[in-house]
Write a structure and sequence with these properties.
- The chain has 9 helices and 14 strands.
- With about 350 residues, it is of the alpha/beta class.
- The strands form 4 sheets. It has a 7-stranded mixed sheet with strand order 2-10-9-8-5-3-4, with helices on both faces. It has a 3-stranded antiparallel sheet with strand order 11-12-14, with helices on one face.
- The longest helix is centred in the last third of the chain and has 22 residues.
- The structure holds pyridoxal-5'-phosphate (PLP).
C-alpha cells in the first residue's frame, strides 16, 4: 500500500532527491567512489557546497553581506551560538512554544533576557501580538513555525530591532525578507535534507561585536572564514540539501512552495472545520501551514485510538500528535504531495461516515 508520510521530522523529502542521493552514495559523479568515502576537500565536493550556498541565496533573495553556512549540531546548538555571538547586554525573546523556550534558556546565562510575551497560558495555541520590544536589545528572537503546537508566523514581522529566527520547520516554504534578520537558522531535517546538517544565514557585519571569548567552534566567524569547511561538515546531508534546493528551483522557487503550502493547508483545515469528529487546536489566524494539528471533538474523544488505527491501516504515517498537544499532527512540508493530503481527508471522511 502507498504510504503517506506526515512525519514531523526527520520527514518527507522529494523522491528524486532520495534516489539521486542514493546513486551518489554508490558512485559520486562517476568517480567510482562513494559520496561517503571522499574527502570534503575533494575537488568535486567543493562545487556541491558552492552551488548549495548560491541556490540558497538565489531562492531566498538573500542580499549582499550575508553568509550561508552548513554546520553540525542541529538547531539546538544554534540556541546557544546565537547568544554567544550576538548577546552583549540584552536580548528579547518571543515564547511561542517548546523550541522558543529552549532557545531562551540558552541565552539566559549570557546576558539579560526579556521574554516579551508568551502564549503558555493557552498551551501555545496562538502567537502573542501585543508586546513591546525595548529599543536597546541586541536582537529579538522568534520561532517562525512552532512545529509542536502548529502555529506559524506566516509573514515577516515589522519591528525596530534586528531579528533572529529559528526557521527549522518552515524554511523555504515562503519568501522571507532576509534583510530584517541578522541570523536565520534551522535543522535541515524538516524541509531540506536528512538529519545531520544545520543551515545558518548570518549577516557578516553583525558578527564580532560582542566582548566575550567565543569558543572557536561556536564562533560564526570561524565558519564564515572557513566556508563551512573549518572542520569536516556533514557531507551526505549537504549533498541531499543541494538536490532539494535544485528541486525547489525547478518547481518554481519559494513562491511556488508557498502556493502549494497554502493549497494543502486550506484543504486540510477545511476538512477539520467541517468534519463533525474533529477540531483544530490553534487559533485560526495563527494556524501553521507546515504542521496541521487537530484533535477529536469533545463528544467523540473516545474515538481517538480508533481513528489513528484506521488512518494507519490506510497508509497514513506519522500523524500521531506530539504528547504535549495530543490528537493528531499532519506535517505537510515542501515535498508533501497534494494527493497525500487528499488521502488523509478521504480517511477522515470515511471515518466520519462510519460514526
Ligand atoms: C525540530 C526543531 C528544532 C530542533 O532541531 P534539532 O536539529 O533537532 O536540534 C528546533 N526548532 C524547531 C522549530 C524545530 O522544529
Amino acid at each position: 500500500m502507498k504510504k503517506h508520510n506526515f512525519n514531523a521530522g526527520p520527514s518527507i523529502l522529494p523522491r528524486e532527491v532520495i534516489e539521486d542521493t542514493a546513486k551518489a552514495i554508490l558512485d559520486f559523479n562517476g568517480s567510482g567512489l562513494s559520496l561517503m568515502e571522499i574527502s570534503h576537500r575533494a575537488k568535486d565536493f567543493q562545487p556541491v557546497v558552492d552551488e548549495a550556498v548560491a541556490l540558497f541565496k538565489e531562492l531566498l533573495h538573500i542580499p549582499e553581506g550575508y553568509s550561508v553556512l552548513f554546520l553540525g549540531g542541529g538547531a539546538s546548538l544554534q540556541f546557544c551560538m546565537v547568544p554567544y555571538n550576538f548577546l552583549e547586554k540584552k536580548a528579547a525573546y518571543l515564547n511561542t512554544g517548546t523550541w522558543a523556550k529552549k532557545a531562551l534558556k540558552e541565552a539566559k546565562g549570557l546576558g539579560q533576557t526579556i521574554e516579551v510575551a508568551t502564549s503558555a497560558d493557552a498551551n501555545f495555541t496562538y502567537i502573542p501580538k501585543d508586546y513591546t520590544i525595548p529599543d536597546d536589545v541586541d536582537y529579538f528572537h522568534i520561532t517562525t513555525n512552532n512545529t509542536i503546537f502548529g502555529t506559524e508566523l506566516k509573514k515577516d514581522l515589522d519591528v525596530h530591532v534586528p531579528m533572529v529566527a529559528d526557521m527549522s520547520s518552515d524554511i523555504l516554504s515562503r519568501p522571507v525578507d532576509v534583510s530584517k534578520y541578522i541570523c536565520i537558522y534551522g535543522g535541515a531535517q524538516k524541509n531540506l535534507a536528512p538529519a545531520g546538517v544545520t543551515f545558518v544565514i548570518v549577516k557578516n557585519d553583525a558578527v564580532g561585536k560582542v566582548s566575550r571569548y567565543i569558543p572557536t567552534m561556536l564562533n560564526y566567524q570561524t565558519h564564515i572564514d572557513g566556508g563551512s569547511m573549518f572542520n569536516t561538515p556533514p557531507v551526505v546531508p549537504i549533498y541531499a540539501a543541494l538536490l532539494t534546493l535544485r528541486w525547489i528551483k525547478a518547481q518554481g522557487g519559494v513562491e511556488a512552495m508557498e502556493r502549494r503550502a497554502i493549497e494543502r493547508a486550506d484543504m486540510l483545515y477545511a476538512e477539520i472545520d467541517s468534519n463533525k469528529l474533529f477540531q483544530g487546536t490553534a487559533v485560526k489566524e495563527d494556524r501553521s501551514r507546515m504542521n496541521i494539528c487537530f484533535v477529536m471533538a469533545p463528544e467523540y474523544k473516545e474515538l481517538e485510538a480508533d481513528f489513528l488505527k484506521f488512518a494507519t491501516d490506510n497508509g497514513m504515517v506519522g500523524i500521531k500528535g506530539h504528547r504535549s498537544v495530543g490528537g493528531f499532527r499532519a506535517s505537510c512540508y515542501n515535498a508533501m504531495p497534494k494527493e497525500s493530503v487528499q488521502a488523509l481527508i478521504d480517511c477522515m471522511q470515511a471515518f466520519e461516515a462510519m460514526h
